[in-house]
Amino acid sequence: VGDTSNLVGGHGPLWPAFGAGGWSPLITDRNQWLEVDLGRRTQITTVATQGRYGSSDWLTAYLLMFSDTGHNWRQHRQEDSFGVSNSNADTVVQYKLEQTVVTRYLRLIPVAWNPNGRIGLRLEIYGCHYASDVANFDGSSSVLYRLSARSSPMAISLNLKTPKNSGILLHAEGTGDHSITLALEKGKLLLFHQRGPTHLPSPSGLSSSGGHILTTIGSLLDDQHWHHVKLERFGPHFNLSVDKNKQQVVIPTELNLLKPELFFGGNVTFSCAEPVSVAVTFTDSQSFLQLPGRTTESSGFVVIALQFRTWNVEGLLLTFNFVQQHRILWLYLSDARLQLQINDTVGVLLHLNTGSGLNDGQWHSVELSCGQDHLNVTVDKDEEATAHTAGIPHPGGQVFFGGCPPTGAHHKCSNPVTTFQGCMRLVALSKHPADFINMQERLLGNYSHLQIDMCGITDRCSPNHCEHGGTCTQSWRTFHCNCSNNGYRGATCHSSRYEQSCEAYKHKGRTSGHYYVDVDGSGPIKPQLVYCNMSDRAWIVIKHNNTELTTLQSSAERKQHRAHFQYASEEEQLAVILNQSAHCEQELSYFCRKSRLLNKPDSTPLSWWFGGQAPGQIQTHWAGALPGSRQCACALHNNCLNSNVQCNCDADSEQWTNDSGLLTHMETLPVRSVVLGGSQPGSEAAYKVGPLRCHGDKSFWNAALFDKETSYLHFPTFHGELNADISFLFKTTSSSGVFLENLGIKDFIRIELRSPLEVMFSFDVGNGPLEVKVEASDPLNDNRWHSVRAERNVKEAMLHVDDLPAATQEAPSDGQIHLQLNSQLFIGGTASRQKGFLGCIRSLQLNGITLDLEERARITPGVQPGCPGHCNSYEFLCQNQGLCVEKPNGFYCDCSQSAYTGAFCHKVISANFESTTSIRYTLKEPFELSQSHSALPSSIFSKMTLRGENISLNFRTRQTPALLFFVNSFYGEYIALLINRHGELELWYKLHNSRDVEVFGSNVMNLADGCLHVVAIKRHKDSISIQVHEVTAHKLTEQMLARVGALGFTGCLSAVYFNSISPLKAALLQPDRNIAISGPLTQSNCGSLSSANPQLSVTTHSLPDPPASLDPSQPLVKTIRSDSALIGGTRSDYYCDNDLISGG
C-alpha cells in the first residue's frame, strides 16, 4: 500500500471486530490518493469502503484509477465514475463494478469527505487472480494460426494493448482473392473487405487495395490500456464489438466461407514489454504547468519538445519570456493549426503557422528550436515553419505549458488564447525530459489542476450519440451534432422536423400540397416527400412509376403483358402508412374491346396482379370485388354484360367496356405488378393503376378520457435509456394532474400539469432530480387541446408546450446518462393513485411509437376510449363562414353556408363573366321573422329575415359602368352594387317603396383597373357598414341604374355571399331548378388572392327613419329573387395583375 503522505493512525481492515485504524493523510485536500499493489493482475469485482475507526473521518465520494504498471493510470468510468458514498465511519458500503476490471494496481482518490472531519478510509477489494497468455508483436511480420481443416472461424476474441495508432490485427482469406482484415487506423478499429493478392497487406496499403471499409468502431485504442475485441458471425452478419461498443454488418457473399487460417501481425514474444511514458492531463481553464527553462550549455541553443493530443481547436501549448528583452513567445493552437507568435512592447514581431487538423485526438509531436539567428517549429516531424532573425536570446526564468497561474501570482505569464485542454507527454527542455513524478511530489516546478501519470482524453463521439446520420464533432468537454441535412433536430438529431401524417398537417391549417412526412417520428424510418390532398379528409397520395393510362395492342408473339410498379416511398414507409391509416384505396381499371380479363370462374385466370407486403401475393380478383373471389365489381352488383361471366371484359364484346373500381382491402395493397393475358387477334385494351391513397391517422385521434383522479392506464416499461421523446395532446378543466410516470429503483421520469399555468417535465438518471418547466401566460385548463413534447438525451432535456418558447436544461458533461426504469408506465395517474389527471390525453407517442390508449381504456374502469369536443380547439381553422362540425375522431368544416369550398372553406370560387352572362337565383320559400342566421339549415333554400344584410364579393374588371350585384322584391325594394362610369363603387339601397333610393358611393378612383378588389357590406336595421375606402353619398336616378344593368358585366367575380346564400357557388357546384344561368359562365381561378395589401376603412351610415307605419321588427320584403349577376367577397383588398384581360 502506498499513498501521498504519512498515515494518521494505522492500517485496519473493514470490520471493527478485526481492529481499529484506517488511512488518513496528514493533509486533507483533493491531491491525496491511496494506492494498492495487488502483486499480480487481478480481476476486480467490488470495492468496499468504511470510515476510519472511532472518528468523524469518512469519504462521501471518490475516484478509482487502475494500472498494470503503476504508471499510465486509467480512470474507471461507470457513467459518473464516483464510488458509492459513506455516511458514517462504521457502515460498510460496497461499490460493485458493472464490468469487472483486470489490473495490478488500484488507486483511490478522495473527491469529497465529511465536512466535519478529515479524509478517512478503510478499504477492501474483492476479486480473483487473472491469468492469460500474452504475446508481444513488434509490427514487422505475422503469425499464422491454423484451425482444423473442416472448421471456419465463427467467433474470434482477443484483448489488445498498444501505443501505436495503426497496424494490422488480424487477416483472413475468403473465396477467390477476397479477404477480410481487422486493423487499427488512427486509434480506431476498421473491418476491411478487400480484393487483391493473398499476402498480408500493410496498414498503409489498406485504403489503396481496391476494397472498402465494412465498419469502424472504437476510438483512442492506442492508449496503452487493454481493450476487448470480439468478431462473431451470425448467419449473414458479422458482429464486431470493442469494449462496450457493438456494430453489425452484412457479410459480403465472397466471405461466406473463410479459410481455416488466421494471420496475426508482428514478430511475437510471449511477454508484454510496455514502454513507460508519463502523461499529464490539463483538465480545465485553471490548468497550467510551470518548469524552469534550460539552454544548451555550449551554444545557448534552445530546443523544447512535446507531444499533445486534444479535441479543442484552440489552446495555449507553451509560453515564455526572453532573457533581458521585453519579448514574449507564444506557441498555441488556433483553428486547429499550430501558431507561433513573438511580441515585443510595440506589437507582433514574428508570426508563423504550420500543421492542420491538429484537434483530431491523435498524438502530435512539436519541436521548437531557437538559435542566435533563426527560429524553427516542426509538427509531426514533417511540417515545419522557419524564420531567420537576428539576436533571439534563450528563454528566461520559467516556461509555462497549457496556461498561466492565477492573476496576482509572482510570474510573467500571459495567454492570448484559451487554456489548453488535453494531454501532454514527452516534454523535454534542451533534451532534458521533464520528470512529472518529481513534479507530482512537488520536487520540480509548479502545477495546478493537472491529472499526472494519465491521459484522461475521452472520445465523446464514440459511440456516436448523433442519430439519423447526424455528424458528430467534439471539444474537450462536450460534443455537437450537425442535423442540418437529415430532417431531424435537437441536441442529438433525435426528433423529426416533420409531422407524421397528412392528417397532422391538416390540423395545423395546411392546405393541399407536397409535404415531408415522418411516419415514425423519431424512429429509424427516414422522412419522405408525399402529396397531401386536403379535402373533407386528409389524403396522403403516393405515386409510382406509371399512374397513367397504358394502352395494349394484341400481338401474336407476346401473349402476356407484365408491368412492375416502383413506389416513391420505401417499403418500411409504405408498411407504416398502411398500418396507421383508417382507409386506403387504389384504382385498378381495365378497358377492353374483345380482350378478356379473368376468363370463366372454373378456368385458369388470364390476368392477375400482385399486392400486399413486398414482394406481394398473387391476387385473382379485380377492383371492387372481394379478395379470392376471382370476380369483378359487376359480379357483386349482378350487372355484368353477360350473366355467365364475372367481369364485363370477359363477355368478349365488340364494343368498348371496362372493369374499373377501387381496391380497398388494406392487406392487398399496394399493387406491386400486373400480368395481363387476355389479348387475342383484333383485341384492344388499356389499363390504369392509380396512386395509393390513404386517409385517417389512427394514432392522431387515439384518445382516452380520465374521469376519476384514481384512474390510470398502465403499459409496459418505457425503454428510453439514452434518448427519450414523449409527445401528446391534452385538454382539461382541472388545475393539476400527472400525465405520465415511470419509475425505476432510483431513476424516474414524469410529466405533469403542476398548475393551470405550468407544465413540468422531471426525471432522474442518477445525477439527482432535474426539472424542466414551461409557464404559460394563459390558463391551460381551458378545455382546449394543448400539445406537449418532452425530450431527454445525453446532452439536454427539453420541454415544448404549444408554441410557447421551449425550456431547456443541460445534462452534466460527465454524469450518468442511462435512464433505467423497471416499473410499469402509468398514464393519467401514478402508482400511488395520487395527483391523477382529469381530462383527455390524445396521440401519445414514446420514441415515435403510438400507445393505443383506446384499446387499453376499453378494459379499464374509470377511463373511457375517445374524447369528444374537438371544435373548441379547431373551429378557428374553418374560414369564411364555414362551420366546425364534430366527428367521432376529429372534425370537418361545413362550407354549405360559405361562398368558399375546400377543407377549411378557404378555396375561392370564381368565374369569368361576359357581357351576356348572368346568374339568377330564386328563393323557394318566403323569409319569415322566426328564423335566425344561426339556425339556418344547410340547404340553399333557406328561410331568412331581412333585418340586415351581409354582402361580400370579389371582382376584377375593366368595364365601366358595370352592375355587380342586384337583389329586388316584388314590392319594389332593391339593393344594387355597381361601378359607375368613373370607375367608382356605388351601393344603392331602397328599403321601402315610399322612399327614394339612398346611394353611397366610393371616391376610390378607377376600380375598373383589372385588379382584384374585395368588398364587404353589412347592414343591421338602419346602420350600414362598408369596408372600403372613404365613402360619400350621391343621388342618382333609377333610370340610370336600369341602363347600367343592361350593359351587364365583363370580368371576374368570386366569393359571392349574400347572408347565407352563395349564388355563384351554387351555380358552379350545385346547379338546380332555382338557378338560372344565361350566357357563357366559365369557372376559373381568376379570383384567387396570391397576395393582399389591405387598406381598409370602415364607414358607418344611418338610413333615414322608415315611415311611422312600418314596424322595424317585421320583414322588409316577402319574396326576393336575383335579377342580375351576383358577386360575393369579404374585404376590400387589392391585388393587381396588369396582364389580366377583363372578361376573359
TrEMBL record:
* PROSITE patterns with a match to the protein in the record: EGF_3, FA58C_1, FA58C_2, FA58C_3, FIBRINOGEN_C_2, LAM_G_DOMAIN
State the source organism's domain of life.
Answer: Eukaryota
Membrane topology term reads:
Single-pass type I membrane protein
List the source organism: Hippocampus comes
Q: Where is the F5/8 type C domain?
A: 1-128
Domain EGF-like: start-end pairs: 457-494, 868-906
Cystine connections: 840-867
Keywords in alphabetical order: Disulfide bond, EGF-like domain, Membrane, Repeat, Signal, Transmembrane, Transmembrane helix
Q: Where is the Laminin G domain?
A: 278-455, 702-867, 923-1086
* Residue stretches making up the Fibrinogen C-terminal domain: 493-544
Q: Which CDD domains does the protein's record reference?
A: EGF_CA (cd00054), FA58C (cd00057), LamG (cd00110)
> From which lineage does this chain's organism come?
Eukaryota, Metazoa, Chordata, Craniata, Vertebrata
The name this protein goes by in its record: Contactin-associated protein-like 4
Localization, per the record, is: Membrane
SMART domains found in the cross-reference section? EGF, FA58C, LamG
InterPro entries per record: ConA-like_dom_sf (IPR013320), EGF (IPR000742), FA58C (IPR000421), Fibrinogen-like_C (IPR036056), Fibrinogen_a/b/g_C_dom (IPR002181), Galactose-bd-like_sf (IPR008979), Laminin_G (IPR001791), Neurexin-related_CASP (IPR050372)
Query: Keyword Nucleotide-binding, does the record have it?
Result: no
Q: Which PANTHER family match?
A: CONTACTIN-ASSOCIATED PROTEIN-LIKE 4 (PTHR15036:SF40), PIKACHURIN-LIKE PROTEIN (PTHR15036)
Q: What is its main location?
A: membrane
Q: Which family, according to UniProt?
A: Belongs to the neurexin family.
Give an example GO cellular component term for this record: membrane
